[in-house]
Amino acid sequence: MSVPDYMQCAEDHQTVLVVVQPVGIVPEDQFFRIYKRIASVAQVSIRDSQRNLYIRYRHHYLPENNDWGDFQTHRKVVGLICVTTCGSGKEWPQTSERFHGQKEVFGATLYDSRLLVFGLQGEIAEQQRTDVAFYPSYDDCPDVEKKVEDFVESIFIVLESKRLDRATDKSGDKIPLLCVPFEKKDFVGLDTDSRHYKKRCQGRMRKHVGDLCLQAGMLQDALVHYHMAVELLRSVNDFLWLGAALEGLCSASVIFHYPGGTAGKAAGRNPSAAQGQAADAGKRHRPGALTTNGISADTSSEIGRAKNCLSPEDIIEKYKEAISYYGKYKNAGVIELEACVKAVRVLAIQKRAMEASEFLQNAVYINLGQLSEEEKIQRYSILSELYYLIGFHRKSAFFKRVAAMQCVAPTIPEPGWRACYKLLLETLPGYSLSLDPKDFSKGAHRGWAAVQMRLLHELVYASRRMGNPGLSVRHLSFLLQTMLDFLSDQEKKEVTQSLENYTSKCPGGMEVITLPDGLRLHPVPFTKLPIVRSVKLLDLPVSLRPHKQKGLMENSMSTKSPFIYSPIIMHNRGEERNKKIDFQWVQGDVCEVQLMVYNPMPFELRVENMGLLTSGVEFESLPAALSLPAESGLYPVTLVGVPRTAGNITVNGYHTSVFGVTSDCLLDSLTSVRTSGCLVEVIPSLPRLQLSTSLPRSAHPLQPSKEELSSSVSVQLFNGETQQLTITLENIGSEDLETLEITSKISNTKDGISVTGLPISSPLRQVLKPRAETRPPGSESSKTDYNHVKMLEAVMTFKYSGGAGKVEGYYRDLTLGLHVDVEPSVFFTRVSTLPATSTRQCHLLLDVFNSTEHELTVSAQNNQDLVLHASECQRMAIQVDKFDFDTLPQPDQETVRYTSLKLLEEERLHAQASMINSTLGITWDIPSVRRKGEASVEGVLNQLVLDHLQLAPLQWDVMVNGKPCDCDIIADCKVGDAVPLEVKLTNRSKNTVGPFALTVVPFQDYQNGVQNYDLQDAVTFIGSNTFYIDTVNPSEESLCLGALLFLYSGDFYLNIKFQDDSVGKEPGAGQGKELPLSWFGLPSIHIRAQEAPMEAGA
């Protein structure tokens, strides 16, 4: 016997073997339909008996195996069922002859046989025959199972007669010697009358009777016969049959202990219902000891049964002993192998995996001679299943892989690559290998990576030989993704080269591959090529960020959580990704997502077509291609796209194309990726302005400014210089611009820069340092202070909106930073005043310092130019009309109420200085560099100078002979003529003044320091020389009239003295005593008296 039955199990010893075979031409599908119905009759309850007969069906059985039927009766073919197709009566003789020929193959052992004929009708089909059943067709055969049951009952009758015949002790008859095929030649010439020979015959026959009893359903009788056979055969050292008796004893004990069977799902035989029926039948046995009918279920008989039945532990020991005896015979290798398999199945039920592995290890080394490749595959496959049965999954996978390699052995003319691939897939669980990449993202790596890589390589090769490059790409991608950490640098290069070769013929994608057996191969995204460490959604550039109108913020505020922040929440990566980011993207504008990536490969990694995967709104991804250097470390990559609709957009991941494999990498499966949120709101579209200026862009940002600027420009100016700035705004968006607001602010100090409309200028006021640090009046400054370069900055903001975004209340800001480096030009180191000849004018003396490195010219209105060399200081005198500061606009009451006195005073002084600057019109010009500007005296003006420059509130006008006297004007008169004198007072103050008394005192000035006031004989007054002025209300005038008479010729001067007559009167009658002296600046009066010309003839 050369072909083992790997499906054998211990309970098969109680079955009878029936072969079902087709005769003639029978369609395969129809044959197996009938075979399946026949095989369903696996257990038959014998009528008039409480015993069951178990049948084992085979559709293919080697005749040489039948020769071992005396050794173990369950190997003997006792029944034959033939299935044939016969279309007409003419074919019947030939069919019948074929049936008889088939019976002759197993004729020596057959108990009975049947022929099932399909398709034959007529007289022949109507014949009543016990061994033939006729059916019109394969579909019209309702009683096949009934025929099989009758057939089985006939087999039982023969079996029972043989059992009774062999079990009867015929002491007078000579017991034949039962042999196995290879023993017959060894027993030729033996002494058949020896006691040793007779014991051998008795022992073998007793074992044979035990087999028949076991098949006939008499378990207790079988146990007794096996025990007797063991004793007899052990005494004569008949080891082969002793092993068979021990195995029979084990099988009977297994049937008793494990009525559910040991075959498991693999054999698919002995249903639990059948076993339950067998147990019920046993319980119906009448009480008593060993009988011909079976085994009693009575308690007393259980004791007797337990004596003969082996314990679970003894069963294994006896199996070991039996296998050791089989091992003594080279020709019993199949018997030994099958016994090992049976023992393993028993041990699997007993959960004794280590002992079972010893039996299997023994089975591996049993030599069965020259096996065909198919037999080797079957052997390794069964070993794999048995190892799996006892929980040795990796060992099971090893033998399954050996079987797979056997399918494509070099000796096979047509290698079975599909079978090899299928078996390799079945080995994956044993090596802790799953083809789902998600299983590799959870925890530490499981299994031996080196073995797993070898297996994956074999899957790649097998799928390629199958002619399925798509499978090869999928397995190779899986190898590269999951085993990347275990590949050497050389292996990484080799695997990627192979993958590129495969993908050049069949690109890899994200589709699910379904194999013919239903196995689904999930897509393998390359999340490690490159490795992404973090994903950050970027805000729009400053110039494009949308802002919500303040009056419309309530709706967005309601979405914020009122709960206090807890760091525990942030441990949940899923909540992080679903968190809404606090900025917005705009429909139609390019949006950016920054990825920090790392190339783990030892060579340059080219990533093609890398883009974003989003959901929520329509999004146009703009793919990028990048090349990462070998082992690059963290490398920033920015992916861009354009949202085409408004709403909430979620960045779910990214897609790549690496080595010809397209991957969709989702962030949900990348637990190690850090992100601050992947959900952002997309608002409706807005206009998009682009700003350009006539000045160069600034090389450095504004230092004091905390806000981000859209753009910034820089310019270098001299103090007082003006620079024209042209700003161009262009709408490059798709929405119309509907609103535009322009504002400006100084970012570092309130002094020093003026933004009026679009032009900007350097300081109009002379400020060396911020105003808070201005030196007190009269202090001197060193020349080094004037060489200080001041940096001034301002920000212009363009607020605009339009389109659908404006409807939703959004706008954009465009900010322009202005950076001005101010170099000193002209400084006034000192200022003072001198009175002029006119009471309404004065002389302003300025010490001018040139702090530049160039020669410059200083000019003023109605004054000569002053040329100053570098670092030169000169004095400039300017005659100016006094200023009426009361005409300056005054702050309203509300401003006065809410503004500090200090600030009001500063604003008043600034307004006065601005009036003085505009009147003076001092400018400077540097011809060598073609630069010019204005100069300001504001910083050096003090209160004393301002008082001298201010026009007095009481305005005095003196008229002599009807002509005003001021500014060195000489009034001419004639001696002896009355000279009219008018003094007019105009009250320009806000209060009532007076009364006053004015006294006119004439004198002569000899220009040598001597003044003569004794002029009673030279000048006389017509009337009184004292004028009285009553109270004068604000904005009113008072006129005093008088006359003088000059008696001699000469130059005379009039000195007008005043007296405040309000002193000593009631309070409030006048404010003269409180008025400053400067208010009474009366002009000097110069009168030249001349002799009247002599009349002719006088």
TrEMBL record:
The keyword rRNA-binding does not apply. It is found in: Golgi apparatus. Keywords: Golgi apparatus. It comes from Esox lucius. It holds the Pfam family Ig_TRAPPC9-Trs120_4th. This is Trafficking protein particle complex 9. GO terms for cellular component: trans-Golgi network. Residues 972-1060 form the Trs120/TRAPPC9 fourth Ig-like domain. Belongs to the NIBP family. Its main location: Golgi. The keyword Protein transport does not apply.
